[in-house]
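Reviewer comment 2.1 asked that we show a complete input and output for one of the modelled complexes. We chose the magnesium ion case, as it is the one discussed in the main text.
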Amino acid sequence: MVIEHICCLKRCKCLWISCWDTVWLPFLPFPDRLCPAPHETITGLDLLLTMSLLRLLAATLKHPGIQFLKNQDVARKVFLQNRLYVSSGATEPFLSGSNSNYVEEMYYAWLENPKSVHKSWDLFFQNGNAGAPSGQAYLPDHSSLLQSHGLTQTAYKAEKLVEDHLAVQSLIRAYQIRGHHVAQLDPLGILDADLDSFVPSDLITTIDKLGFYGLHESDLDKVFRLPTTTFIGGNEATLSLREIIKRLESTYCQHVGLEFMFINDVEQCQWIRQKFETPGVMKFTNEEKRTLLARLVRSMRFEDFLARKWSSEKRFGLEGCEVMIPALKTIIDKSSEMGIEYVIMGMPHRGRLNVLANVIRKELEQIFCQFDPKLEAADEGSGDVKYHLGMYHERINRATNKKITLSLVANPSHLEAVDPVVQGKTKAEQFYRGDTEGKKVMSILLHGDAAFAGQGVVYETFHLSDLPSYTTNGTIHVVVNNQIGFTTDPRMARSSPYPTDVARVVNAPIFHVNADDPEAVMYVCNIAAEWRNTFNKDVVVDLVCYRRRGHNEMDEPMFTQPLMYKQIHKQVPVLKKYADKLIADGTVTLQEFEEEIAKYDRICEEAYTRSKDKKILHIKHWLDSPWPGFFNLDGEPKSMTCTPTGIAEDMLTHIGSVASSVPLEDFKIHTGLSRILKARMEMTKNRVVDWALAEYMAFGSLLKEGIHVRLSGQDVERGTFSHRHHVLHDQEVDKRTCVPMNHLWEQQAPYTVCNSSLSEYGVLGFELGFAMASPNALVCWEAQFGDFHNTAQCIIDQFISSGQAKWVRHNGIVLLLPHGMEGMGPEHSSARPERFLQMSNDDPDAYPEFSEHFEVSQLYECNWIVVNCSTPANYFHVLRRQISLPFRKPLIILTPKSLLRHPEAKSSFDEMVSGRSFRRVIPEEGIAVEVPSEVKRVIFCTGKVYYDLVKERKNQDLEGQVALTRLEQISPFPFDLLKEELERYPGADLVWCQEEHKNSGFYDYVKPRFRTIVNHTRPIWYVGREPAAASATGNKNTHMVSLRKFLDTAFNLEAFEGKMF
Ligand SMILES: Cc1ncc(C[n+]2csc(CCOP(=O)(O)OP(=O)(O)O)c2C)c(N)n1
Ligand SMILES: [Mg+2]
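Response of the prediction step:
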């Protein structure tokens, strides 16, 4: 289409553009002022507007025939120079100023083919080229245009034609946007999947709706040109309105409901439209249909088998959504075909056993034996219920004959909590394979409808999906949308139309599909897999289904959903429906179908028989992330020793100098940072480190050993307290950064430091998942302030604290939790150490035996390690110890704030060199130890308060009478070292001093353990703040007064005289 003519028609209030294909496109509504008089020339600003609208129209229409003519050779401009630039706007009025581009384009087109422009232009250019005088080249040709028709009639017809085309375009768009609202998604046919029975007025559900568009029944057989934004025509460029509506209905309003028009990327929208609109796309070969039927047989008969054998056992069956099994298998097949080698899955309870059996292909007897209540657990730990355990399996994908690894991540009951964990593990697996685009490793997350809509961590996880250091390059989400959550109706469970609306925030397409149409489900799953592979973005498949039984098999659903369940009881199972269809169309015979069923039933029966021989349950066989070579063949640590964590001095010096420099040339850093780097250099020269430098040295030395280090959390790159500066920013080149840690050694592991989204639950879960993938990485998550970790409490309680006990899975994640009472208010003071300590599994009352490897074996027995270091050197060692240990344990480090810059909180290289290691306890090293019998009081403390105590003791001149002993490792409790300390001062008061309130901090944890050491013969007095509801005061003065008060008590040697304990 070449836009060839603009004219202003008499009193039409609009501008017309005539096109060679005779479609006349009006610009409506045009305000009067743009068309003030008949045939009046539009000039100046009006014309400018007109022309820009013209271009906008052309761009919007994107008709394949639209040509934006490019400037060609200069010689061709001669005419225009003569005509346009020499002639005045007054003499050739319509050629004035700003429409010259348009006319120019027209002219080029005319030069190439005079017939490509309107007759009037042809005449005009001919006259112009022939040298017509200024102002006379243009002869208005309305006469020829209007010759055969009267003006009114022509205009009317043209207007109608244009309006009808626009109406059809709008209609197509309406289906693309809102067709899903009327799609037949609910297999029960009783609930609207979007929770709204309202039918959008712009969908042609009845013939009278045509009126919405100014169309009429009589227009149904008129033929319309299809816009480029639809593929319903296939190879045809035009279709009758009747056919258009039919095809739109079949694409958008049958068993698939597509939500994608909110996606900002036109190419992605076009891709989806093409995949679903192209006529005949949803066709399957007989072979594919038979495979689908066989998969449905397995899915259905597996549940039937369990129901028959263990009718009163909870299993959270899949009945009502059996299609989920072929759906997952289709996604995996397609992904494998496109190069995926490893699929990591996370899912809730519903249908989990079926997934284990029929997707991951766990041996059936291993599943069945779990129903035996007498089965003993071979592994230590508490274990978990069968529908929480994880799985890892390598096998050949039958559809593609390629190797595939499948892992189902173990999870707690806490719905959706596993989502970020799966993402973190997926990211790590991609990272270690160098799979930067996610072409080899991918994740699939399954969700229940109520949980997907209700749990905030779903949103947090979606927000990680496109962040460079967190993206897994697209996740396929599958929702088992059984339209109920336990007993709760979706109308009471969410405010969004669909349970999947959360995915819209990341522009993920959402494919709703009626789960009773297995072929539609398969089609959608194939497209979801292709989408991920094409765009590396998330996609949601919403399986709209039902739940045949109660929430679990013991539950009576009729109590609360009587009508729904009446319908469900009448519902023909999907397998029967599909089998009947395939038998009816001759794809399979009844006999073949029955044989398929009998074959699978036999498989189940045989496995059941074998399962009875199993006497012992090995939870290890349910490990989702094995670490080959890390443990011995029995899955035990290879030793019970820990290599020393000190390193050679030249390494310290080297790391110190890199940490003080800018490894890139012409890189201008901030002057304030230059000062910091200079100070680091000074420290290195003086053989001392502060907190940040100690951390640098720990990370840097591990990198040299080939250990990947990842530090993630809010603002970790600079450090909340502006102390770290691991990413340098060029002050003159935008976005130019440098990470000196990655310039330490020629051969080193990569260092990842990444500011995260403002999420704790999501990001901590992610890092836990990352740490799961390999034991040879130090994965650290830092809270902005320790106080905020409780928004990730679920990850801490359900995974970090108890993960190993439940799933025999080690994890060495490090939590860095800034902690310290510094008058910063109730939410910037406490990492709540009491909570971590309360969850520590060491027995306060059991006095341990001190074996040769007590320190390491105590660590092996514990569920996590809680430390509160008071020196940079100790922080350095404890980070390195994480990797030196022959096993992995989560490490909770309470990190300082003011100590980051405290002049006393520095360590000498001497404390970090080879031979030195982490000190669980730092005993008194001053004059008090010289004559211990003179010591009247031993104050045990941990962390920052030590520095307050040292200062106060000096002020009060009590250095000979009061000993200060620091607990650096709080849990597991260093019984052995503290016993020595207590025995060193037999006549002294024993005091626990903490800056936290009495009902928080460490006191409740240490008190019973101290008492166990002294066999309850000596009291442990408490010195610290009073009990309080909030973890800290918001009032600076109150803070200082309470500090003063407890310091006074700490050094009042009579404070506890005569007191009972
Ligand atoms: C965070 C959390 N809150 C509450 C529960 C208790 N609970 C278990 S299943 C369930 C309903 C889940 O509904 P839905 O997500 O639709 O899954 P369905 O059981 O229908 O497959 C609830 C509330 C839970 N497991 N986790
Ligand atoms: Mg549900």
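Residues 151-178 form the longest helix (28 residues). We note this here for comparison with the apo prediction described in Section 3.2.
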